[in-house]
Amino acid sequence: MKTFPPFTRILLVVFSMFLPATAYAAGFERFEGTYKGAAEVVFDGEAQRRDMSATIEDNKSGFKLSWTSVIYRSDGRKTEKTYTISFVPSGRENIYTSAMKTNVFGKEVPLDPLKGEPFVWARVEGDTLSVFSLFIDEVGDYEIQEFHRTLVDAGLELRFRRVHNGEPSQEIETLLVRE
């Protein structure tokens, strides 16, 4: 059995500590960019136009996803919501945990769904970057929101799905064009 000098062993240990972060960080880079699109959605019997955009960018330890949805109501009102979440490697290949708050040790960690906060994670599977959000309400009912963004020649095909206690309640599909 071959042994390495102490300095070489230290270097190997230090290198292996950083290997999972870099090995698992690969995969999202091809999704980087800014994308825009629109969809017509029927919600509570009312047709609504929605403008949607998403920006995916590298950050120091993973990636950051920002998305905006603008809802145009039939009475002329407009509602705009923007969300930004950073994701870091989870230690499992192609699965990323959200980094939405900092714990007492200075580590970025996900929120706690049992406190009414969303638990968010992402996964890269083939040409699809999926983001899942789990919400648990005060009586224990749950809602999962799924955002599947699949690479296509023009940009991203977006498929959004909301599931409440196992029952699908809303789906939106559209194309977000790469700018």
Describe what this molecule looks like in 3D.
The protein has one helix at residues 6-25, and strands spanning 33-43, 46-59, 62-72, 78-89, 95-98, 101-102, 108-109, 119-125, 128-136, 142-152, 155-164, 167-178. It is mainly beta. The protein is globular and about 50 Å long. Strand 8 (119-125) and strand 9 (128-136) form a beta hairpin. It has a single domain (6-178), classed as Lipocalin (Beta Barrel). The longest helix is centred in the first third of the chain and has 20 residues, at 6-25. A ten-stranded antiparallel β-barrel has the order 1-2-3-4-5-8-9-10-11-12. A two-stranded antiparallel ribbon has the order 6-7.
Question: Brief overview, please?
Answer:
The protein is mainly beta. It has 1 helix and 12 strands. The strands form 2 sheets. Strands 1-2-3-4-5-8-9-10-11-12 form a 10-stranded antiparallel beta barrel. Strands 6-7 form a two-stranded antiparallel ribbon.
